[in-house]
Known about the structure:
730 residues; Rossmann fold; 13% strand; elongated
Amino acid sequence: MGQEKLAAAINPKRRTSRFLAETKCSNGGSNGCYHLQQQFLNHQCFGDCIYLKSTVYDSLAKDGLTVAIEDSRIEKVVLVIHGVGDPPPGGTLNRFARALARDEKPLVERQSTVWLGEKSTVAHRNRTFPTHIRQLSIDGNQCEMAEVFWGDLSQVKRGVLGLVYGLFQIIFGLRYVAYVAADQPGVAARNLKHLGLMSSRILHGPVLAITTFLAMITAAAFATDNIWPNSYRDPLWTDAMMGGSVLIALGAATIGLRVTRSRVVVRFWSWLCIVALWSAFLIGAKAWLIDPLFPEINCDHCAHPGMIWFCRVLVVLLGLIWLVESLVVVAMGICWLGAWNHPRVFKPAINLGFLLPALTVGIWGQALPMAWVLAREGISKTNRIPEFVAVFDEALPLLGVQFLMMVIMAIGACAVVFRYFLWRGTNNISSYLSGSRPPRLIVNPLLQWMLVICTTTGVSMVLALCSMNVLKIGYLENPFGMALVEVNKYAVILMVPLSGLAIFLLPYLRPGFDILLDVINHFYFRATQLKDALDDDDEFDIQETTFASGSLFFSRRDMIHCRIKKILVYYRERLRHRPELVIVSHSQGTMVAIEILNDPEMAWLSSSFSKTSLVTMGSPLTYLYQHYFGHLYPSLNEPFWDDMRQRIDRWVNLFRIDDFVGQEINFPVQTLTKTPQSWMADFGASIPNSSSHPLGCHGHTNYWDDEAALKVLRSELFSKQSPQAIRKAA
């Protein structure tokens, strides 16, 4: 009934709810920006920013359909920046608005969507992104709330396929974090940084490409053997299958290179082309050179007839590349030890610079051989071809050792998680203020040392096996090799039930995936190109939004930052009476807010808003970024943060005492109040009106409608009385 009345009031003759038309802006847009002119909407344009402003009728407000606040009466602009995961657009804003309004009924205040322009990756095109807006009266304050949505830029996906995709994103993306962590002074750190990148390129290039092509020719051999038994032994049919596999690989790589934007995936497709061309060369070399010189390799009773010979060559090549990978890890370990002696190296970061590439090597070293074993055990036909079994058994002597190390790491992780939940069940705010702290879940020190030990063991075993191979010592002929064979058997037996358990637990690991992917996306970079640094009439310059100007371009982070800048420009141009700016952020969103407030490009904030307040909830600034990346995020009293200190008037930090991502922020001159009733810590004058509020045990999520958090926000930001007066009265 309300929607019909609204349509009738606007246009009695036509009940069509929406009519879209594209029209060119004539109000001074510097780039001739385009916007959607929607029926029943007024449009305005400021520079490159465009927005749609809802037309509101007083007669409709009387019926409770909508309540609008005139621009001149807006006292506070509240920007809501979500954190981990991929919430629906507008979902966080609606959830937070309802909780703040303390109303169980549907909110009737005005809702609208603002469309702002952002750079496009396609030349001469302008993209738009939506910003959901609500106008509310919160404890007597006339507020306009806007959501800074960046879930579509975070590369996080939903569902089971999204979890699998996220897992691969983590494995492929750890190299970005490791590179930035090792980007520190000293020759050893510099070499560690480049060796870590080399390790990643070997794994995601030739190792994956050879494994993929090996899987292709193996699948072709099995398929044809079902139709024509022992076809894999025939030389002509072998050449035909190899030629077909080469053509398929080249076609797939050509298409992949055209449609793929990720540099890592492009590298894989390039290497697949190289492996396919090299295999084509092998076909000709075997037919015209090797077979005439060594005719015995094609006999029916030889160890590697037909297709087995090509598989054997690829397996040997794969083993040599793994040997090179192991030597790179050894060199990284030497550089890691050397970097520790440098006086200006931040040691927690240099640890990550070594451990993350080593972890990636361990993951692929476990996953790829296990995939072959599961395929062999799952395809009954494989066991009928003894030559295939022999080839791949020779390639898997370390599978059991890697599996054993994985089990040890899993046991250590379970012990840390158990200790965390034990602490959570026996502690409260009083004990936290007395000094009790939960065990660190993200890169726990115990797990760091276990990873170092497992990496050292694995690399040593690889070098030992390679040495035995060079010395013509068969590993099956001594107790060492026999022990490896026995461990392999148990690894294969246990892998099937453990794989099922991992699939069952995968949905429960989603929060951890989201957090890791947020960190990876934060440090995702590419080399800055000339076109990135050129002046394109945009107010915001790429060079000023990167840590290493002109060398590393943190592209995903820059896109997220540009969105919040566009929203701030929208309010700067629309609201001339200088209202108060309140930025409420959670998790990774707090890093967006902090870096925006510290950005040199945002010097106009102080003149556009009467006051700027920052709310951080579950912020990883100190607990994660300053702890592990102190060379990029120094103490808050350092000159690095001068811009932010000049712009911020109040900083309210809320954290749960069991939050495993973000806890208290180390403000300068910290004096923690030991009174749990106040739930507050006052800090020195370097950041005025700073306060930190520990909350109860509820983990890292759901701050937006936590009543304890909302109580603090109402008293600190939306009360007509000053926070100091409220504390004094309490």
